[in-house]
Specification:
A hairpin with a 4-residue loop joins strand 2 and strand 3. It is built from six helices and 18 strands. It is of the alpha+beta class and 334 residues long.
Length: 334
């Protein structure tokens, strides 16, 4: 990595706390980012064809709200959107939200992955699970891998579940002078996860014997050449957030979120298909460090790509699926 950048724990970014809750038996979970009593400015950029989201309109530059109070990343697809009620209850109990008469109304944005059917389609994150994630965020010690929103994440699904691999949730952060930038991402992609530095496939579409990678991008081209391109089902989504202590407006954060998608493109291929609902939030917490938007957007892409890489490498095999860890062991024995 460039020696000008200092890698730091994401928990060193002030004014944000991250917590997970999950149901390991049923392969689903959620991850919450709590943004403090004053909230944080936020932007959003959605790519792909099938997002499941809540309160996205708040983050458009023309919307009146200048800050939000939490972001929830969750499993359960559109069913999981009910979970935000647990975050609202937790924040209301803390007295956090906009004062409307004698009521505090917290603003909670949410995006979900499709993890239904990995184990069951009948169990999804709910308000109780999201409330638990908020309680866990008080410790601010977030883990990686099969946790939170990444619990039921999978990748390499171009040809269906039989040749897919296990994925998960990744974290990564850096500091450049006083400017801090971090990323949290749950990788549930149609395509393969690649090392952003070497382009090596880390997790993705397997060969039929599960001994090597078939390469989703090349497979897609071969199928298209044979007039047999697969139909893209809306069962894949990579969702994440970049977090900075840089001072930015909501409009600028939408641009930073857009630039952060370059990190998706570096580490996932193919990406932003009609079968994906890829979304990235950009959050300005603390609001104290003046910074150039071009530097911040470039950093956002960098930390996001590295967080995706970690989502692959930190995830063990689960639910009958290989992961990057287990496939490397298999290949090293051959």
């Amino acid at each position: 990595m460039n020696t000008i950048l200092q890698e730091i724990p994401i928990t060193e970014i002030e004014h944000v706390k991250i917590g997970h809750a999950q149901d390991m038996e049923h392969a689903t979970g959620c991850t919450v980012l709590l943004l403090g009593e004053e909230g944080a400015r936020a932007g959003l950029d959605v790519r792909g064809g099938g997002p499941a989201s809540r309160e996205s309109e708040l983050l458009k530059p023309v919307a009146a709200a200048e800050v939000i109070h939490a972001v929830l990343l969750s499993g359960g697809s559109a069913f999981g959107l009910d979970a935000a009620g647990g975050v609202m209850r937790y924040l209301e109990e803390q007295g956090i939200g906009f004062a409307v008469g004698d009521v505090r109304v917290p603003l909670v944005c949410q995006s979900d992955i499709y993890d239904l059917g990995l184990v069951t389609s009948k169990v999804r994150p709910d308000a109780a699970m999201a409330y638990e994630a908020c309680r866990n965020a008080e410790k601010n010690c977030p883990a990686e891998g099969n946790v939170g929103a990444g619990t039921g994440a999978t990748v390499g699904k171009l040809l269906g579940p039989d040749t897919a691999m296990n994925s998960g949730l990744g974290l990564y952060a850096v500091q450049l002078g006083e400017l801090k930038m971090g990323a949290v991402v749950a990788v549930n992609a149609l395509g393969d996860i690649r090392d952003p530095e070497t382009d090596e496939i880390l997790a993705g579409l397997l060969t039929p014997d599960h001994q090597d990678f078939a390469d989703s991008e090349k497979t897609l081209y071969r199928l298209a050449a044979a007039a047999a391109a697969p139909e893209m089902s809306n069962t894949n989504t990579t969702i994440g957030a970049v977090i900075t202590n840089g001072h930015f407006t909501k409009t600028q954060l939408c641009k930073i979120a857009s630039m952060a998608h370059n990190g998706y493109a570096r580490a996932i291929r193919p990406v932003h298909t009609m079968g994906d609902g890829d979304s990235i939030y950009a959050l300005s917490v603390g609001d104290v460090v003046p910074a150039d938007i071009n530097v911040a957007g470039t950093l956002a892409a960098h930390v996001m790509a590295q967080a995706i890489r970690r989502a692959a490498l930190m995830t063990p095999p689960m639910y009958g699926l290989l992961s990057a860890q287990s496939l490397r062991k298999i290949r090293s024995r051959d």
